Hints:
Elements: E1 3-9, H1 16-29, E2 34-39, H2 45-50, H3 58-62, H4 68-71, E3 73-76, E4 79-83, H5 87-90, H6 96-107, E5 114-119, H7 124-133, E6 136-141, H8 145-160, E7 167-174, H9 177-194, E8 199-206, H10 209-217, H11 221-224, H12 229-243, H13 253-267, E9 280-281, E10 284-285, H14 289-315, H15 343-351
Parallel strand pairs: 1-5, 1-6, 2-4, 2-5, 6-7, 7-8
Antiparallel strand pairs: 3-4, 9-10
Amino acid sequence: MARIITITSGEDGVGKTSFSLNLSLSLASAGFKVCLFDADSGLSNINIFTGIHAKKNLESVTFRQSDLKDIIIKDYKGIDIIPGGSGIKKITHLTREQTHTLVNEFLNLEDYDYFIIDTSCDAAFQALSFCMASHETILVTTCEPASLTCAYSMLKKLSKYHYRFPVNILINQAQSGSLAQKAYKQLKEIVNKFLPVKIKPLGTMASDKNASAAVIAQTPFFVLFPDTIASRCIKSITRKLLDKKDQTQNIPLELFWDKSLYFLKKHRTPEKKPDTQTVYVEKGKEQDPEIKKTLFHIQSRLSALTKEMNDIKKSLVIHGSPPNKSKEKETKPPLPNEISLDFESWLEKKYK
């Protein structure tokens, strides 16, 4: 029996994976046994935030190439991580035998207090099935109008399939508390007007340059910068979730998977066969549509990461005097509030 929390969003780039990872670490630091399920179907964001590259994922479990216990990344800074990878998309079309295998694997999994699911926008229907099988869903959005529109779209999908629990709304990357409150108010007004699903505020994650710097170090900000504002926000949200512990129902993991897979089987669309006539053209070979889609997804991710890296570099620029054009190199002491890219030496100076 575990408290299962599905974390989702209406779009990529709102900080969903960072929140999922740091929330899991915060719960573990409070003494709970936590498992984070990285339900990303393509280029895993957990890899980017931790530097971990899993050799096997959920696909090898469904095809009986590995046991679930063999693919789990054990005790990463106090939490266990299950890499989903390409196995997430394939669960839509599992055979009855493969479904039985997957459910049984989770039946034999050790007990956890919390099972956190980081969903993928690239596999929207799978993400929806995880939400429908969970008693708790956290929807991550930002104050941007486009992000709020995407969040509303996800709530509309949940309403379509009669999701019956209130959805927790997390406003991420907020520049101020007033902006976060305004964004939530706008979302709540339109949801109350047009949708039957209920929403409630979970909290706000403040915009924090240290959280961006932690991405470069491939170390969660909750570990690297435990006293930064983002970490304080995570701790506050953790306390809020713990206060509501008695209001939620723990469910067995095998029951969760049974409900999720049943939803997929009931509502999935038939798998389209590839059109062989479009694979080749007279002027040369054309890529398969699935390959194109995967490459486009990876290119979009890399483009977003490149932009984020450039923003981080700008925020870490050391504002000093213009460089000396003379041949002699002049060394100057660092500014007092400077965040160095040499994280180890920076941390030594900070905590001396």
